[in-house]
Amino acid sequence: LLEELVERDLLLPTGVPGVYGRGAEFETALLAFDALVTRETQRDGAEVVRFPPVLPRRHLETSGYLSSFPHLAGSIFSFTGSEGEAVELGARAARHADWSDLQTATAVTLAPAACYPVYPWAAAAGQLPATGRVVDVCAYCFRHEPSEDPARMQSFRMRELVRIAAPDVVTDWHRSWVERGGEILGSVGLHTDVAPANDPFFGRTGKMLAANQRDQGLKLERVITIAGDRPTAIMSINYHQDHFGLDFGIRTADGEVAHTACFGFGLERVALALFATHGLDSSAWPPSVRERLRLDGG
Ligand code: ATP
Ligand code: ZN
Question: Nearest-CA neighbor of 57 among 8, 103, 116, 109?
Fold first, then answer.
């Protein structure tokens, strides 16, 4: 599939596995699905906010990401040295030699998921309103997982809704979106299955965390075949329980620790699923799908 996608200029290779430019036809389909999500979630009254694809390092540390997923995190380093060191840096870079020891950590890392900036922001706003909050975010996310699978990118967009409220409200929301997400995908001809899932926790302790997450049904995915014969998750629903509420100190109107959940469409994966399912020429997609995505305008 990757070869065909590249041949048709849908994905533009950069030489690094999992890092691509997006051609116009690919981007048009992706943005059309993103707009469909906007239309479908209007009635949820979500607060729409957008954060840049970088995250304060402190927030990544507070969330525990570096203990659970040290292998996926990307941190931003920069140069703060002397003039002599700058000459050395430039010279090493010119011959593609290692210059990493000449840089130091900045205050930011790359965002691993679109929802991460929401929790510290919600905590800073003080106690939640009585009904909690629903927040709509979308951002490029980074994960260090180089792969030749076009559906496993290092840099990709997540369109997420985040629910922050009392536990019973969040569990109901979590459950309802398993179905609603499936209906949205089904409406553009993407027929998915629901599968229990776990986050890719690191190491031996991680295996236990993953098993626990799976057993409790905290993470569910909507999967479909894109490339190869193993289905790929194009949407994930995560119930974090009190994890972010405790880490960042988010309180409900009653003063309890807030629970949180999020669901996210992997926008590149949805676009890939559309091309894999309906064909690589989007002008020949079924009229009902083109209409639903408003690809002919309107
Ligand atoms: P996977 O199990 O495939 O590694 P994940 O469990 O790490 O995915 P989440 O953290 O739940 O995924 O991310 C939310 C959504 O973002 C996923 O449902 C998927 O559609 C998308 N996504 C995750 N990782 C990637 C990736 N490497 N490339 C493209 N999209 C991705
Ligand atoms: Zn999330």
Answer: 109
Distance between CA atoms of residues 211 and 29, nearest Å: 36
pLDDT value at 298 more than 90:
no
Residue of the CA atom closest to atom 3 of ligand 1? 233
pTM of the model: 0.96
Q: Is 114 a residue whose pLDDT tops 90? A: yes
What residues contact 170, with CB distance under 8 A and at least 6 apart? 132, 163, 164, 239, 259, 260, 261
* Cα–Cα distance, 279 to 108 (Å, whole number): 40
Mutate to test the pocket of ligand 1, among 158, 199, 201, 274 (most ligand atoms within 8 A of CB): 158
- Alpha helices by DSSP H, the chain: 2-7, 24-41, 57-62, 65-68, 83-94, 118-124, 167-186, 203-215, 243-248, 267-278, 287-292
Contact 167, 187 (CB under 8 A): no
CA of 210 to the centre of ligand 2 (A): 16
Could you tell me the CA-to-CA distances from 78 to 81, 91, 102, 103 in Å, in that order?
9, 16, 8, 5
CB 196 less than 6 A from any atom of ligand 1? no
Six token digits for residue 294: 């408003």
Distance between CA atoms of residues 241 and 213, nearest Å: 11
> Which residue bears the tokens 């019973």?
168
CA pseudo-torsion sign 59, 259, 269, 215? positive
Range 40-63 average pLDDT: 96
